[in-house]
Design brief:
single chain, 15 helices, 42% helix, globular, 446 residues
């Protein structure tokens, strides 16, 4: 039986590789394969189920087995522009059959469920999250986990919320996530900033601020910073965790793209903290753009107050991610499809960043400062003073390249730069677009 079972698997895999069995097309029936290989139906089913568990094929109840796609669906937009302006990836950058497979299972499992007023999120998914987070050295319990719509929503709850340290100032990096800055200014939240440069922040200045100002929490994006693209070194991470505990300041850590691990030795600030001063945020919108869902890890000291504030958020703007999003993520975690998807994305972004880094080094040879490019989506170009970023962006658009200014990312003292995002561009577009940027700057700085 074992030899026949393996031969069926090998033959089907070869036929898929040779494109005899095409993506999304139905495989021959179990009865047909049993007759072809002169074996029992149970032997065929074992072979097919093994291929299914290996994410090579998928099944549809009452229909049969179908071939999964083995690579990412390519972007099919016909835009004439190379878009470096946005951090929102293409919806097509997913394995669509995997997603359909997960949705089918999710609908079957959750068909009789309802969110009701459970704004924590679905219990079965929350119980999976601790094991998933432990891979990133974030150790917690289901009771401290909340499933929500995303990071911006959590920040809008935390900012006005009273904290046990009885302080009221929100500290942010300068520059930082522009939509949070807009929120702070619009609602007149008491806030201040600390400059972030190539290696990070001035730790002496951070200690001075923690010691002398009433800092409620410090919002930081330590890995793959937006818009700079930089990542804190371990000494910075340890120091931030230590200072938070010493001066009774909470750390709100935005690890929005932490699944794409380019440095296996990296650990989040959370892993070095005292577990009582750390709020850990993670989003899946950059990984699975068809679902909107985020994870919040909340310390025990904030659970009671946060519960009160999240309930208001639930009734006014719906706190929890949709049941479909939660169910889909649960299937992705249980079936290892998330791991498969992340492995594909990691290889892709390593490839894209390699091309980007090569081009950034050419800008450095022109004495133009650049940051980032080691991982994630973002990098930053500091423009020469004689070139206004608004004029530069307008000129590049006329040449088919869309960029975004970093002006709105600065709390104060904005710099004359542009952000490069590779979320929507493949390696070929990155090379072409960066060459246009390099040629334009070369002719301008001469």
């Amino acid at each position: 039986m074992s030899l026949i079972y393996k031969k069926i698997m090998d033959d089907i895999e070869k036929s898929i590789i040779n494109n005899t069995y095409k993506s999304n097309k139905k495989l021959p029936s179990i009865r047909f394969l049993a007759a072809k290989y002169n074996c029992s139906k149970s032997t065929v089913v074992k072979a097919l189920e093994t291929l299914k568990n290996n994410h090579i094929i998928y099944s549809i109840p009452q229909s049969g087995y179908y071939v999964l796609e083995n690579t990412l669906v390519k972007n099919t937009t016909n835009s004439p522009f190379i878009d470096f302006s946005t951090g929102n990836p293409n919806i097509g950058d997913m394995n669509i059959p995997d997603l359909k497979h997960s949705l089918d299972i999710a609908v079957d499992i959750y068909s009789n469920n309802s969110l009701n007023d459970n704004t924590y999120g679905v219990d079965s998914l929350r119980n999976l999250i601790p094991s998933y987070l432990s891979k990133f050295h974030v150790f917690t319990k289901p009771n401290n986990i909340f499933l929500n719509l995303g990071i911006q929503q959590l920040l809008s709850i935390l900012s006005p919320m009273p904290f046990p340290n009885n302080k009221d100032i929100v500290l942010v990096e300068n520059p930082t996530y522009k939509y949070f800055l807009q929120y702070l200014k619009f609602f007149d939240i008491n806030s201040m900033s600390i400059d972030r440069a190539s290696k990070g922040i001035d730790l002496n200045m951070l200690e001075h601020i923690f010691k002398n100002e009433k800092i409620k929490f410090f919002y930081t994006v330590p890995r793959f910073h937006n818009p700079l693209g930089t990542t804190y070194e371990k000494d910075y991470i340890k120091s931030i965790a230590y200072l938070a505990s010493k001066y009774d300041v909470y750390i709100v850590e935005d690890d929005y793209f932490g699944d794409i691990v380019t440095d296996p030795k990296y650990d989040p600030i959370f892993s070095f903290g005292d577990y009582s001063h750390h709020i850990y945020l993670k989003s899946f919108s950059k990984l699975l753009p068809w679902i909107r869902i985020g994870i919040t890890v909340m310390p025990d000291s904030l659970l009671s107050t946060f519960n009160q504030y999240r309930k208001f958020s639930y009734y006014s703007s719906y706190f929890s991610a949709s049941l479909v999003s939660q169910a889909t993520l649960e299937i992705y975690l249980k079936s290892n499809l998330l791991k498969k998807h992340i492995n594909i994305l990691t290889k892709e972004y390593i490839k894209r960043n390699k091309v980007l880094n090569n081009k950034l080094s050419k800008l450095n040879s022109l004495s133009i400062e650049t940051l980032g490019g080691e991982g994630g989506f973002y990098s930053y170009i500091e423009l020469p003073t004689k070139i206004k970023n608004t004029d530069f962006i307008k000129s590049l658009k006329s040449k088919g390249v869309i960029l975004s200014s970093t002006d709105s990312c600065y709390f104060e003292n904005k710099k004359n730069g542009v952000r490069i995002s590779i979320a929507k561009s493949n390696s070929e577009d990155i090379e072409k677009g960066m060459d246009i940027i390099i040629d334009h700057l070369s002719s301008t700085v001469k």
